[in-house]
Fold:
Amino acid sequence: MTTETITPRHVRTAEASPELGGLGLFTVLLAAALPLIDFFIVNVALPSIAADLSASESVLELVVAGYGLAYAVLLVLGGRLGDLFGRRRLFLGGMAAFGLTSLACGLAPTAWTLVAARIAQGAASAAMLPQVLATIQSTTTGSRRAKAMSLYGATAGLSMVAGQILGGVLVSADLWGTGWRSAFLVNVPVVVVGLVLAARAVPETRARRPEPVDGPGTVLLAASLLALLAPLTEGRAAGWPLWTWLSLAAFPVLAAAFYAVERRADRAGRTPLVPPSLFALVSLRRGLVLILPFSIGFSGFMFVIAVALQKGAGLGPVQAGLALFPLAVTFLFTSIAGPRLINRFGTRVVTAGALIQGVGLTLMALAAWREWPDLGLVTLLPGGAIAGVGQALQLPVIFRIVLSEVPPARAGVGSGVMVTTQQAALALGVATLGSLFLSLTPGLGMRDALIVTLLVQLATVALTGLLSLRLPRTVG
Structure:
């Protein structure tokens, strides 16, 4: 792989990829954390947003879904643009846009203004995040790449839990009277620091022979994802009007059209937005299949537990967030040990992780059954701590597997496909498990609705474990 390395003073073609140093790796991982934190940070802030902006339930769902939709729809395009124009350039531009849109969210005077700012924030995330993985793929090799990918996976998983905890702390702290707004405003100084560090420590890379943007593929992928995710995220709150069913019916047609266009371009020797030939890589194909059930279950759980603890158990935002603290702690420390475990046991670590996570979820369901409504940090600690260990043995490994065979020249495309799959699954998790929980609550009560939802998530964990048996035994 040959990349162009661009410095502020000159442009040169390097014989080898530039190296990503420790400070550069810290910077891109910081950027990787921001979009995922912001996907989950609003879960515990929604009641405060509703009260302050007089937002209806359907508008609140758009605050969550608008971000997720824009993020998922534009991720692959963001990866392609990084290959074309330079990953560092897109990274800096995306991070700056993320800071500005976070400021717009924090200053939003109305609910609909907040929805618009969240959609723009999702688009900024889609420009920034694919460059993180593409930069790691293009500037590291061997054990350094393996370590960096493990750290990325650990950062992603921890960010999803930390976002919910941080949201609760910030909303309750009510810094300078900002209330829920601080959950977005906190991004601004972090982005400023990130931009300064990125300008100094993140090298520029791009594909040596980048392909132009695939217009038809981009439009069809966006249409396909919107046709699937929009009705699932808004359907329940809107009462499932006709447009939701028409949209769902259009999804397989649009998806088939997208595949046909991409296959034709691939066979013609061009590089489509999502090259079907990329799925010939066994590790990528099977790893992506694992991301779906894992992410659906994880995001659905995070949304449901936030609602159940606040509306059912009567906890405040801080207590609801801190109830997940044991999960975050065990995830962190297990992730640190993850690379050694992978080197020794290979991908069977994922299977073990699914079994351990299943035990943790079972303990949490038992705690809800026995202790409701007295749920909190103490009652959820055993199950949460064990579930965190199981999750940490899965997510970082799966990310490593997906990209292990992707050539550096297609790093942007490969990372965009992976993160799009993850983000679409996160949005599906909130839409499906969240809708299941909210629809069951009136008839069963919140305790039983929570238990049923946890059992459904347990099924997704079992599916992840079974699918993991088909993974290659070792990973690079």
Observations:
- The two ends are 17 Å apart (CA to CA).
- The longest strand covers residues 4-6.
- The longest helix spans residues 411-444.
- The domain at 18-203+280-468 is CATH 1.20.1250.20 (Growth Hormone; Chain: A;).
